[in-house]
UniProtKB/TrEMBL annotation:
Residue positions binding cob(II)alamin: 61, 132, 153, 156, 167, 214, 239-240
The name this protein goes by in its record: Epoxyqueuosine reductase
UniProt lineage: Bacteria, Pseudomonadati, Bacteroidota, Flavobacteriia, Flavobacteriales
Record-annotated 4Fe-4S ferredoxin-type domain positions: 174-206
Active-site residues (renumbered): 132
Pfam families: Fer4_16 (PF13484), QueG_DUF1730 (PF08331)
Positions annotated to bind [4Fe-4S] cluster 2: 196, 212, 239, 242
Residues binding [4Fe-4S] cluster 1: 186, 189, 192, 246
Organism (species): Flavobacterium rhizosphaerae
């Protein structure tokens, strides 16, 4: 059986590479013991703001065997989204992850293909694919399976490729060969903490989600609090500051996924273009983009807040 575990794991990693994933790591499914008290404390201190969904399914977040019957292994996958071309300078900015088509759909397709491939080559394997849409602590699982370490900005960091990637999982009911966590390489660096425009990184490795620009511009449904005025550094959807300043992102290379390519029109938009955006333009430019999550009214609210 050990030989099989090794063979199956090798096959899964080779398939993941063929499908365009940056890397693939595997860990044993079970209760995330270290994460439990951290998550509980973070929720108790209301670091999640109005993101009520973070409180739901507490047990399932910490134990994938409650999500997938007979779960034995968590296969973590990274998909690069670092863009070759970026927005013009001096404009309202959107997070690089939202430049192209909505990652949920792009990755789901790849995961479906990977699961089919596993079934065709290994046999009947039960499993489910997860892309940031179910109670799975994806960064914790990716770190457990050696794909990187969780940095001071609470993002998963990799020495090889930085942090501009999506994380997804396949939770399956077969035993595989498991990888091991890697060491933390943040050292004494505090670049992300020093650069955060809203001081959302309240201590190394702890982000107050309710202070993050991404939270205000995407998750918050109410008006943005007036006291935040002038501290958004022109970010209209999401924020990349803590990633942009991270020294490990010197190693980011442009992605090779055509569906993540940015709409050239969006890259060229000036502040004036953003301020004058109509619902029609919004629908055309962001047709399949994650930016649609804020809806037109949400984006307008963000831009009005930045320009006043």
């Amino acid at each position: 059986m050990e030989g099989n575990k090794q063979k199956y794991s090798g096959f899964i990693k080779a398939e993941a590479k063929r499908l365009g994933f940056l890397s693939c790591g595997i860990s044993k499914a079970g209760f995330l013991e270290e994460e439990a008290p951290r998550l509980e404390k973070w929720l108790t201190e209301s670091r999640h703001g109005q993101m009520q969904y973070m409180e739901n399914h507490f047990d399932k977040r910490l134990n994938p065997t409650l999500l997938v019957d007979g779960a034995k292994s968590v296969i973590s996958l990274l998909l690069n989204y670092y863009p070759e071309q970026q927005q013009i300078t001096d404009t309202y900015k959107i997070s690089k992850y939202a430049y192209g088509q909505d990652y949920h759909f792009v990755i789901k397709e790849k995961l479906k293909e990977l699961l089919n491939s596993i079934n065709d080559n290994i046999g009947e394997v039960g499993g489910r694919a997860f892309v940031d849409s179910a109670p799975v602590l994806d960064k914790a699982w990716a770190a457990k399976s050696g794909l990187g370490w969780i940095g001071k900005n609470s993002n998963l960091l990799s020495k090889q490729v930085g942090s501009f990637f999506f994380i997804a999982e396949l939770i399956v009911d077969i035993e595989l060969e498991y990888d091991h966590p890697v060491a933390d390489h943040c050292g004494s660096c505090t670049a992300c903490i020093d650069a955060c425009p809203t001081q959302a990184i309240i201590q190394p490795y702890v982000v107050d989600g309710s202070k993050c620009i991404s939270y205000f511009t995407i998750e918050l449904k109410d008006n943005i609090p007036q006291e935040m005025k002038g501290s958004f550094a022109d970010w209209a959807f999401g924020c990349d500051v803590c990633q942009d300043v991270c020294p490990w992102n010197r190693f980011s290379k442009p992605h090779t996924e055509p569906l993540f390519d940015a709409n050239p029109e969006m890259l060229a938009m000036s502040k004036k273009d953003w301020q004058e955006i109509t619902e029609e333009t919004f629908r055309a430019v962001f047709k399949k983009s994650a930016v649609k999550r804020t809806k037109f009214a949400g984006l307008k609210r963000n831009i009005d807040f930045l320009k006043e």
